[in-house]
Design a protein that fits this description.
By secondary structure, this protein is α+β, with helices and mostly antiparallel strands. The chain has helices at 10-22, 61-69, 98-110, 245-251, 258-275; strands at 42-45, 52-54, 77-78, 84-85, 112-113, 122-130, 136-144, 149-155, 171-172, 176-180, 187-195, 201-210, 213-221, 227-230, 235-238.
Length: 276
């Protein structure tokens, strides 16, 4: 059953608009961060167009933008058919607040008001933004109808998303790592779980780094999340001493692991074929 959205009602919107007016001269100052005690409170206003960001929740405002579109998040979204949903993510180096304000101002100023895909009660603006590194991408800014209160902001294309094999059925869970030194060896194990729409762990990718060798195995789990089998190494390669185990493990959570996920999908299809 789909959860009911918690967005600003008309009465709440009037309160937010009144709050914006009450700030008076403070709204004329750039980059002011206002304290919030409620999800409906304004936390900052853009310097050029005075677009107001509310603190928000999972469905609207700053928190919604972060939880659904920020690169460094590990929330899992699912379609109604139980397949993974991948909302478009910002670039890896996007800075919440500062970049959000700059993008919103540019899209509002230079973009076009777009009726396509517009929901009742909202205005859509589509426009380009040029990043610090010179990359230019298109974004959609959504405001509450006839106001400058920001509902959401996101790139039109999946510029920050991991590349996922077509028909892949699982989301990546929380990555864990263990570093040990058995009998003088250096051994790092990184486990990357993959879960279904019920948050049940179905497969894990196990990376083993032993001295200067690296191995990839797949772990298979039953519905009770107990490990039921580990494959022989699927991949094996050499690593150098300067590979940087610590930083490597840190980035596995958000790394592009399409090759690994292709192995999982092929393995899954083979298992399903043998069961048929």
């Amino acid at each position: 059953m789909k959860k009911q959205e918690r967005i600003l009602t008309q009465d709440e919107l009037e309160i937010v608009l009144s709050q914006a007016q009450d700030y008076g001269r403070y709204l004329e100052l750039e980059n002011i961060l206002f304290m919030h005690t409620d999800w409906k409170d304004i936390v900052w206003v853009t310097p050029i167009n005075k677009l107001a960001f509310i603190w928000g929740n999972e469905d609207t405002g700053f928190l919604h933008i972060n939880k659904r579109h920020l690169f460094y998040q590990n929330l899992k979204f699912w379609k109604e058919n139980g397949k993974p949903d991948d909302p478009s993510l910002f670039k890896r180096n996007t800075i919440p607040r500062g970049d959000y304000m700059n993008i919103a101002d540019d899209v509002f100023s230079k973009g076009v008001k777009n009726k396509k895909g517009e929901r009742e009660g909202f205005d859509n603006y589509t426009g380009l933004f040029k990043h610090r590194d010179g990359d230019e991408h298109e974004y959609i800014l959504v405001t509450y109808k006839d106001t400058k209160i920001v509902h959401t902001l996101y790139p039109t294309k999946k510029i920050g998303n991991q590349v996922r094999p077509k028909d892949f059925l699982w989301h990546r869970g929380d990555v864990t790592g263990t570093l040990t030194f058995p009998e003088g060896e250096s051994r790092l194990e990184i486990v990357i779980p993959y879960v279904d729409s019920d948050n049940i762990k179905c497969y894990s990718a196990l990376f083993e780094f032993i001295n200067n060798k690296a191995y990839l195995r797949l772990q298979v789990h039953n519905p009770k999340e107990k490990q039921t089998g580990t494959t022989q190494p699927i991949l094996e390669w050499d690593v150098t001493a300067d590979t940087g185990f610590e930083s490597m493990g840190r980035y596995f959570q958000h790394a592009d692991l399409e090759l690994v996920e292709q192995h999982i999908l092929r393995f899954h299809r083979q298992v399903q074929k043998e069961k048929a």
